[in-house]
Amino acid sequence: MIAAIASMSALGLGLGVVLGVAARKFHVETPPIVDEIEEALPGTNCGQCSFPGCRGAAEAVAGGTAPVTLCPPGGRETAMKLAGIMGVDCGGGADAGGFVEQEPVVAFIFEDHCTGCTKCFKRCPTDAIIGAAKQIHTVVNDACIGCEACVEVCPTEAIILRGKPRSLRNWHWPKPDAYDPAA
Amino acid sequence: MKLFSLDALKRSTGVFAIKGGIHPETRKYLTAERPVEKMPVPSILRVPLQQHIGAQAEPLVKRDDRVLKGQLIGQARGPVSANVHAPTSGRVLAVGMFAAPHPSGLPVMTVTIRPDGRDEWGPRLKRLRPEEATPDEIAERVLEAGIVGMGGATFPSAVKLGLGRKYDLHTLVINAAECEPYLTCDDRLLRERGEEVVDGIAMMARALGVGRVIVAIEANKPKAIAEMRRYIFAAAPEASVVAVPTLYPMGSEKHLVRTVLGLETPARALTAELGVIVHNAATAHAVHKAVRYGEPLVSRFLTVSGRGVAEPKNLEVMIGTPVSEILDFCGGLKGEPDRLLLGGPMMGMPIRSVRVPVIKGTNGVLALERSETRPEQSMPCIRCAGCVTVCPCGLTPLELQARIGAEDLEGAVDIGLMDCVACGSCSYVCPSNIPLVQSFNYAKGKLAAQQSQKHQQEETKRLAEARTAREEAVAAAKRAAMEKHKAMQAAKKKAAEEKKRKEAEAAAAAAAAEPGPAGEAPAVPPERDGPAGSKEAAE
Fold first, then answer.
1. Of B102, B438, B463, the CB nearest to A176
2. What is the pLDDT of residue B527?
3. What is the pLDDT of residues B245-282, one digit of tens each?
4. What is the topology classification, in CATH, of domain A32-95?
5. What ipTM goes with this model?
6. Which of A164, B26, B27, B322, CA to CA, is 20 to 30 A from A92?
7. Which of B457, B459, B470 would you mutate first to test chain A, the one with the most A CBs within 10 A?
8. Bridge-based pairing state of the strands B72-75 and B84-85
């Protein structure tokens, strides 16, 4: 037994030293552009871009494997900012490279179906769901980013995403119809 | 205007010229000679709790409560807000969401009252003798009475009356220009209640601490000018009535100040920074009623007009009266109107339903027929620059429109979008019917929405960071607890070993001292200790 313990310890120590030296010796500086991009992203790690968190997305954008328009919650604003950082053209002000601006969505909980299991609010990246065990949960619309994390975990499928409710505070005039030669 | 030099204009009429402006057909003849009628108590009143700029008032009544006329039903909340009072006595049917008098038709918190027809006053506010009241007392009474700017902007008046503390004011300008076509309610107010309006103006001047008052009335209302000239001496030491040119948008605050005083208000600054405060004539009348008689703002004058209305009239209506009842009182509609508006035809709000109520800032109800509106089909811009000529703010609407059409909102801001007062002169003159001012309203709304979205994004970022920090703290606490636990176990184990060793030593010593079968006995306690220790470890 002593031999076993001694050999495992020696192995562990030896490999640890090797790894430690390797980490020092082969250390790779993260390009500063990644930090800059991460700063521009919403930072909620919602995963809607299919990358592991905003850091992963920032690395992908910096590596050129993802477009600057990858962030749905960030919208056009973020896309323009990323385009500025990356020095790429995303189509100017008009349409940001075909980036379709989506209507902002928020989660909505059907209270009839909610069992108060607390799974959703444990998942929420912005603490936008309030509630407690065996109490019906609800969503704070102003804090919700519509990331779908809660929709996936709800055992009773009581959560849907819907358009952000319109109120007098956030209403504005629609864009009037411009001249259409075809009409 | 351009035919005259500034000096020539000043000498002849005592006013300064503004750039641009339009001369729409006023059509005030429909109602100008009709005295104000008091509308009977309607069958239902819907009083929104948000009739002003700022925070919504807090409801103070609930379903089935009986309310008296003038009773406070909505309490102002925050520094910029206004009280709401019951316009008549009756029973509260509901406190809930109801369509707002707004182009969106979105709901707003509304108190619905079924009047009992007795119109019974509750306790009024304490009366003040304005001659003895301090400026603060007057401002406080205006605040209690829920008075807001009644020209349509609905900014709480008490806030504006308190500006005397912050700025060095010298002049109060009373806006009775009423430059919007069709509307005649301010004209009638000055002709019928001139003395009361002047009393209100005097109180406002006192509250602001200014010695100079100028009442500005468009030259197309000679009777109102004459009536005001009879009473104006009582308003302030230096009081005058100025006939300003009949030119739209003369009633815009900054343009009016420019016309009567020759002072140009810098972009996005307040006229208060120049020492000038502008109040509406109807607001002055409301101040008179609140201070002199303790009556809160529960009714107002408005004009019901347009060719779509059977009998155009000037009315005194209770706040919260549904538009449908007002139209019925005026003989109903002549048919389906092309457009139904609250306010004037240039800047009024189209409404979707006649069930919505009129509010403190509603100065007109207009039902316009096809002949009074214009075709909506727009044509390409021919770059005639007619809009540039008429823009009273010195902007280039055609360029703004081009940039907004391409969604280049920042570009539009660069060339002065935020200086646009949305008067609609550009849309009025455009020979191609391009919806210019509509585009500017869209762009301003969109920019505001973007701003709030940006703010929200920052907030959610902060929330996400707070959550990450919290989770890390929880994990760190768990790790620390685990390490502490491990350390404790190690210490225990060590102690147990120590004990065992000591006991063994003692036993050995005993055995050495007294050799015999007793030497086996000390071996028992350590064994008993052992399982207990391992149990703890398992925990």
1. B438
2. 47
3. 999 999 999 999 999 999 999 988 999 999 999 999 99
4. 3-methyladenine DNA Glycosylase II; Chain A, domain 3 (1.10.15)
5. 0.75
6. A164
7. B457
8. antiparallel
